[in-house]
Each structure stands twice: as structure tokens, then as C-alpha cells.
Design brief:
heterodimer; A: two-stranded antiparallel sheet; 4% strand; globular; B: mainly alpha; two-stranded antiparallel ribbon; transport (chain A); amino-acid transport (chain A); Branched-chain amino acid ABC transporter permease (chain A); transmembrane helix (chain A); ABC_transp_permease (chain A)
Chain lengths: 311, 308
């Protein structure tokens, strides 16, 4: 073990730094999915489509506004703006038109409604943005690189992946926890989650809370997509792989747990990048292996409990 | 519906399939695929009886398909190859079922999904064995010792699919009417009552799971023999969603529902893909939404409603 660390310790360090960015992105998507499930009790398969649409919109908006010649923070602002737009338009639309009709239905039918929506949105993406990879990395380039010492050498990391993405993820985590615990709207969300009937009886408008929560979840999904767009080309099918990954995070963390989603996303993100360095074939397996291992020991997830309070 | 009417309906259905395949040659391929998917959907329906939805049964489809692709070189006889692939899928179902039968609802669905994605990634990543996303060709096989040319081969698979479809429909019907099958609904309503009656819910679900895995495996073996080419995409999670879709489309009532749903699904897919290549998922999604929101009983109840 000691000898292995002497040889590979530095490489392991690099792998961990690499994993931070992917953990941050996984967290953003998974926490949105988790929030929506906690309140609406609907596992939204189309959440992955919102991620993809967020990514496409961010790339498109960035190209249209010429964000390559903007200051770095403005280019980042463009990404966030694109996410907010997608979430604010599609979120209420989906909740009002579709989900509202099926809250009283069985789980199976709810899953299938969001699956149908997912199928439709997959083709909508192809019709709007085509099937060619879309890439617009202005925001990442503008933030420049940071040299990380590696033995006697230096390895350049992009500041965007090393600081910006993890920073935003931490901000979202802290902001979300603060929002749910300290603000009136947040506490209303917690109340509806705990007991919808009692919450309605004391005058909370549950419909509004559902709408608010779903829109917030949609913005988070789109934000994950938008922030990922500078780091990799967007290809058809990215929504499908994203949603499975966030399912794995949510089930591992325990349904409806926000801090748990953060820790699990970190575990899975780091685990994957370590795998890329040391056992490349296993990279895609890591999230599921972690999930299966956790559920074998704790069937309700790492932080899941059997009590009714979920957030 | 009485036994006799259902038997009559099944017979009419089989004759209609054969007649359509005879009259329109290109339908042979579509109908074989539809029957295969109908068998897999029937398996998924058994689990739905217990209120459990699996978003991972395409794993068993892909597993059996690859089993056929690997074994066809050594076992060149389709009538041996089919039972072998089904048996292997059932064994995999037993191993995985022992694990997932402990979980319910969302967790059951997600675990199936996760395991199927593990299998999918294995197929995709181990290029030296599975040829990755390129997939594998299935060597030609004999039927009852006879080498078949293209058209004869197509007929052979179609007839095999039809026989297996009827066989599994009968089996499913007997099973659902047996105490073990009736107990499935107990898992959906209240599990504790089953335990009080001395029936272990896990074992009840496990039996259904192994059966459904065998049926999905049957579908995979048939598809491999029809398309003669297997790819990891057969096991992707969206393929599992397709199976659940077919059950809902057909209506989760009788054992004929999944087959009706599968044929409707395949026909819509073929026509939609031919006329609007980039929008067939859009059309299927809209159909699925329409069925769930406006025709809850599925196609099966629509047909019945009109007759009554």
C-alpha cells in the first residue's frame, strides 16, 4: 500500500481534482431531481431532457451573444441566464399541463407520463438542434488555467473546472438548505412535503408550492446542463445518460435528502475520475456499483429514513 | 371474459398474424419483432400485477440475444438454442431476483435500471469480447436440422414466435389464476396480509421475476434469430421503458393485451420512422400520453368497449 502511494499518490491527487467538476455537475442535476421527488412524489424521467435542453440553449445563447469576447464573469452569466430561461419557461408548462393531472395516480403511471415526455423532448431536441455535436467553450477558456504542481512538473487545469463549477455547486447547496430552513417559501415546501393535508388546512397553497418546487428543479437541471456545455460537446442521448446517473445518485443518497445527494454526488464524481486514471473500463460502472453496494447494506439509501419528514 | 371466448380470440389473433404475414411479406419481420416484444411485455405485466415496475428488463432481452450470438457457432440448431437461451435468462433472473425482490416501488425500478445499465456498459466496453457498439453477427442456424434460406428462415422464426407467444400467454393465464399468481395483487395492496396468511412476499415476487426474466429472454433470443445482429442498445434503459410502454398501451388487463400493444407499437414505429424519421419518438410519446390520460384501459378495453 505504502509503495503504491509513493508511485501513484500524485496521480491519485490529479484524479481527485479532475473529479470535482464532474461531481459538481452531477450534484446540480441530482439535487433538482431529489427536490422534485421530495415534494411532488414524482420521479421525473424528463429531468434529463431539461439538462440537455439547458446545455443546448446555453451553447446557442453563448454563440448568439458572442460570449467569447465578453469578460469571463459575463460569459458565466450567460450560461446561468440560459438555464433560468429554460427552467422558467418549461418548468411551469410541464407542471401545469401534465403533472398536475396525475398526482393522484399510481407510481407506475406517473413514471410513464414522464417517460413519454422524455421521449417527446428527445425528438424535439433533434428537430431544433440537429444531431451534430454542439460545442461552445467560451466560458471555460475565458477563465484561463491554473498550474497544478505535479512532481517537478506543472499540469494546467482549467480554472472553470477546478474552482467555478465546484464553487457554484457549494453555493447552490448552501443556498438551498438556507432557503428550505430559513425562508417562508422554503418552510412552506417542507410543510407540504411532510403532510400535504395539514399544510393545506393551515392555509398553505399546495398547488403553488408544487409549481414553485418543480420550476426550481427544472432550473437546477438546466443549470447543470448549461454549466456542462463549455466542458464537453453536446450530443444526442446526453439526456438519457444524465437521468440514469442522477437516479443512481438519488437512490444511493436516499430519496428526498439534499445533503445526502451532495455527498453521494461527490463520491460518485470522484470515484469515476479515479477509475478513469486507474481502470478506464470500469468508469461507467462505478456509479452503479456504489449504488448496489449501498443499497445492499442500507435498503433505504445512505441518508434515507423511514419517517415521513424528507427534507 | 369466458375461457372459450378468450381461446377463440387468441386463435383469431394467431390466424390474423399468419394471414397478414402471408399477404404482406415485409410484415413478417415486423410481426416477429412485435410478437417477441409482446412476450417480454407479458413478463413485465406480471410484475405490474404486483405494483412493481421494472425499468431494466431489456437486460434479459439483451442477455439472451447475446447468448444466442455466442452459442450459435457451437449449437447451430435453433430448437436447442432457444430453450438454452431462455434457461440462461431465467437463471440470471433468479440471481438478480434474489437481490431485487427485497425492494419495492421506486427502489425496485431503480435497481433494475441500474443493473441493466451495468450490463449495457459491460457489453459496450469489453470490445475484445462483444465488439462494443458495433454489435455481433448471429451465424446462420438450422431449424429441426434443416438449413433454411432467407424466406424460409423468416417463416420459421415467425411460427416459433407465435407458438411461444401462445404458450407463454397460456402459462401466464394459468399462473395468474393460481394462488401464487393471485398473491401478486396482495403485494400491491398490502404485503403484511400475505405474511399473515403464511405466504412470504419475497418468494411470491421472486417467482414472478424469474418468469418475467425467462419471457424477456425468449424475446431476446427470437429477436437475435430474426435480425441476425445484436447490439448493446437492445439492453439500454429506453428499451426497458419501451416494454412498460407496450403493457400500458395494450392495457394491463388480459394476457392478450401486451401482444395487441406490441403490434400497435411496432406498426406505429415503422410508419412513423418511415414518414418522419426524426420525430417517431415524438409521435410514440404523444400516443403514450393520450393512452394514459384518456384511455386508461389501453387498446384492449377500447376494443372490448366497442363490442359491448
Amino acid at each position: 500500500m505504502g509503495a503504491w502511494f509513493a508511485d501513484n499518490g500524485l496521480l491519485l491527487g490529479l484524479a481527485l481534482l479532475d473529479g470535482l467538476a464532474s461531481a459538481a455537475l452531477i450534484f446540480l442535476v441530482a439535487v433538482g431531481l431529489n427536490l422534485v421527488f421530495g415534494v411532488l412524489r414524482v420521479l421525473n424521467i424528463a429531468h434529463g431532457s431539461l439538462y440537455a435542453i439547458g446545455a443546448y440553449t446555453a451553447a446557442g445563447l453563448g454563440a448568439a451573444l458572442g460570449s467569447g469576447s465578453l469578460p469571463a464573469w459575463a460569459a458565466l452569466g450567460v450560461l446561468v441566464l440560459a438555464a433560468a430561461l429554460v427552467g422558467a419557461v418549461l418548468g411551469p408548462l410541464i407542471e401545469r399541463m401534465l403533472l398536475r393531472r396525475i398526482y393522484a395516480e399510481e407510481n407506475v403511471l406517473q413514471l410513464l407520463v414522464t417517460f413519454a415526455l422524455f421521449m417527446m423532448l428527445e425528438d424535439v431536441q433533434k428537430l431544433i438542434w440537429g444531431v451534430q455535436p454542439v460545442h461552445h467553450d467560451a466560458a471555460m477558456r475565458l477563465f484561463g488555467t491554473v498550474d497544478v504542481p505535479f512532481g517537478s512538473d506543472f499540469i494546467p487545469f482549467t480554472a472553470y473546472q477546478l474552482f467555478v463549477l465546484p464553487g457554484i455547486a457549494v453555493l447552490v447547496l448552501v443556498g438551498l438548505v438556507w432557503f428550505l430552513r430559513a425562508t417562508l417559501s422554503g418552510r412552506m415546501i417542507v410543510a407540504v412535503t411532510t403532510d400535504r393535508e395539514a399544510a393545506t388546512a393551515i392555509g398553505i397553497n399546495a398547488d403553488r408550492v408544487y409549481l414553485l418546487t418543480f420550476t426550481a428543479g427544472a432550473v437546477l437541471a438546466a443549470l447543470g446542463g448549461a454549466l456542462s456545455s463549455p466542458t464537453a460537446a453536446i450530443v444526442p442521448g446526453v439526456g438519457a445518460s444524465t437521468i440514469v446517473l442522477s437516479f443512481a445518485v438519488v437512490a444511493t443518497a436516499g430519496l428526498g435528502r439534499i445533503e445526502g445527494a451532495a455527498l453521494t454526488a461527490l463520491m460518485i464524481g470522484l470515484g469515476r475520475s479515479v477509475a478513469v486514471y486507474f481502470f478506464p473500463e470500469a468508469e461507467v460502472l462505478i456509479p452503479y456499483l456504489i449504488m448496489v453496494a449501498v443499497l445492499l447494506v442500507k435498503p433505504q439509501g445512505l441518508f434515507g429514513t423511514l419517517e415521513t419528514r424528507r427534507i | 371474459m369466458t375461457h372459450r371466448r378468450e381461446a377463440l380470440l387468441a386463435l383469431l389473433f394467431a390466424l390474423a398474424v399468419l394471414a397478414a404475414a402471408f399477404a404482406v411479406p415485409w410484415l413478417r419481420f415486423v410481426l416477429t419483432l412485435a410478437l417477441a416484444k409482446g412476450i417480454a411485455a407479458l413478463g413485465v405485466m406480471l410484475l405490474l400485477r404486483a405494483g412493481q415496475v421494472s425499468f431494466g428488463h431489456a437486460m434479459f432481452v439483451a442477455f439472451a440475444a447475446y447468448a444466442v450470438a455466442f452459442l450459435a457457432g457451437q449449437v447451430g440448431e435453433a430448437l436447442l438454442l432457444l430453450p438454452l437461451a431462455i434457461l440462461l435468462a431465467a437463471l440470471l433472473g433468479l440471481v438478480i431476483g434474489l437481490f431485487v425482490a427485497r425492494y419495492r416501488e421506486i427502489f425496485f425500478g431503480m435497481l433494475n435500471l441500474a443493473l441493466s445499465m451495468v450490463f449495457y456498459s459491460l457489453l459496450e466496453k469489453f470490445y475484445s469480447i462483444t465488439h462494443g457498439t458495433d454489435g455481433m453477427r448471429v451465424p446462420a442456424v438450422t431449424w429441426a436440422g434443416m438449413a433454411t434460406e432467407r424466406v424460409g428462415g423468416e417463416w420459421a422464426v415467425l411460427v416459433a414466435a407465435l407458438v411461444l407467444a401462445i404458450g407463454f400467454a397460456l402459462l401466464a393465464r394459468l399462473y395468474l389464476a393460481s394462488p401464487l399468481g393471485e398473491a401478486l395483487q396482495g403485494i400491491k395492496t398490502r404485503e403484511a396480509r400475505l405474511e399473515f396468511m403464511g405466504l412470504p412476499p419475497r418468494r411470491v415476487l421472486l417467482v414472478a421475476y424469474v418468469l418475467s426474466a425467462a419471457m424477456a429472454g425468449t424475446a431476446g433470443a427470437l429477436i437475435a434469430l430474426t435480425t441476425r445482429h445484436v447490439t448493446p442498445l437492445m439492453g439500454y434503459w429506453t428499451a426497458s421503458g419501451e416494454l412498460v410502454f407496450i403493457v400500458i398501451l395494450g392495457g394491463a388487463g388480459g394476457v392478450l393485451g401486451p401482444f395487441l400493444g406490441a403490434i400497435a407499437y411496432e406498426l406505429v414505429r415503422v410508419y412513423a420512422a418511415a414518414s418522419v424519421a426524426d420525430a417517431w419518438q415524438l409521435i410514440l410519446g404523444a400516443v403514450l400520453l393520450a393512452v394514459i390520460l384518456f384511455a386508461r384501459g389501453g387498446l384492449f378495453s377500447l376494443l372490448r368497449g366497442r363490442r359491448a
